[in-house]
Amino acid sequence: MLPPSSARAPRRFPLAAGAAAVLALIAQGTAQASFTENIGTSPEAMSMGNAVTADPSGLDSIHFNPAGLTRLKGNWKADTFFGASIKPYASFTQPPGFDIGGWKDDPLAGTSTGPVRQSIFLPVIGVPKARLPFAAAAGLGFSWNKPGSPWTFATASYVVQGVGIDRTLDANDPARFDGRRVNIQRLVYLSPTVAYKWSDSLSFGVGIPIAHQGFMLDTDMRMPNKLLGIIGKLQDAWCGDSSNPLDAFAFGLCGDGQGGGRLRPFNKIGAMNFEMTAPADPTINLGMLWEPSDRLSFGAVYQSGSNSVLTGKYQFNAEPMLDKFVRGMYSSLLGPIVASMFGFPSSIPPVQSGNVTLVLPYAEHIQLGLKVKPISRVQLNLDANWSNWKRWDKLTFQFDQPINLLMMARIFGQADPSKLVIPRGYRNTINYGMGLQVNVTDSLAVRLGYEPRKSSVGPDKIDLISPLPDITVKSIGVGYVAKDGMRIDAAASYASGKFNVPPDGSCNLNCTNFFNAVYNPYAGLDVSGGIRIRYFGVTITKPF
After folding, report:
1. Residue among 305, 303, 429, 421 nearest 361 (CA)
2. pLDDT digits 0-9 by tens, 29-53
3. Can you give the pTM of this predicted structure?
4. Are 532 and 495 in contact (CB under 8 A)?
């Protein structure tokens, strides 16, 4: 880590009491982990368990604590490269007594998800179709400080949120019904930041990160619901193998009379695809750094949230089954009465597309940190942070027209077919990170990081779109400082976690309640799985 540049005057503050106060605050309550914060933002930070608020290094200070920029004297440039591999997995088991409206054999029972590749969201271009073995990203930063000036100015580009999952290698992957392709990415491309050194030991900083927010979801859909199962059984009993001559004088349940229009709870009903962006979404970072001595420092940072307004394109594809079903009802004597009562459309086109808007909350974040050096070559960092992911209660997609396919979901609570409401129900989180740095020599440092993260996606809300259970992140890194001032920081991290959701355990995944059709594609199944994340990064910082 870049050392402070000036000697500090002694302070009368009781250091032991200050350390105890911060440690007490960090230890309060149950530790809960974040959603995706600070995964792959900085190699040095990740090697220290992202516990760098009290000792922000170099241009990483722009994100982790803007006040830390006052430690940079002169002009500096930083180049960063990251690579990450995200591997979610899941398996599906049918429990005893499984029954969805009279249907007792789900074809997905006994299957497991297949290979996963990565994808990225490129500003202007969108999500390329290429499947990547790992996702790559690069960052660039600059800082400027005149000798003797208390002011430091900086800007950088970096990724603060990145999830890109591609499950298209296997066309029959059971995960295709809950996110065949998923991208949520927030790229800060400009972050004008200023820091001011108030005294030898106290600094403040403020930055305005301007980010590109991208969101893409491509998924097949099925709705294993009891109502669909009951109607399907009724069709089979009333219509037989083909049709019933009396059906035209009744409710038209036999569809086209050739077996088309038979409802099946486990069949694919359609597919939907969204791709949307917020090209410029600003937030604000506020930081404070107090360094009463070289062996002790305290830091705090506040990162504001935002309501990112994303716009883009959508496309719904409907299977012929539903269209034949509603056409059969409207061609009968009594069917139109029942169909209009439930708000069914008279037809469902195979494709509907247009423009869509989504307000995607970005959670505000508070982080407090403590740095202690018990001996000159050993440093311990401890951070606690809070994130307001409770704002992800639900996601509402607003379309430019009513979607006929969604009209079929009115009975399940989707009252407005020009909107799609996907429940999320995430929770606020508090978590902590720990880092250890050992200066082997004056130019070489070895670092270890540890983060136990209790997910903001509760076990009753988890799904395959956000397969994020509690995870443990372990990191290792090295730092080297050359004689000319150039610094090289490298790190590698491994994160893993598992989940097991019994039937009706998550109403974003496998609930069987009548009104939980949107969206529980694995209703009644036992779903177990997890996620493995491997990532590495290198930063080269040098004066210019």
Report:
1. 305
2. 333 334 456 666 789 999 999 999 9
3. 0.84
4. yes
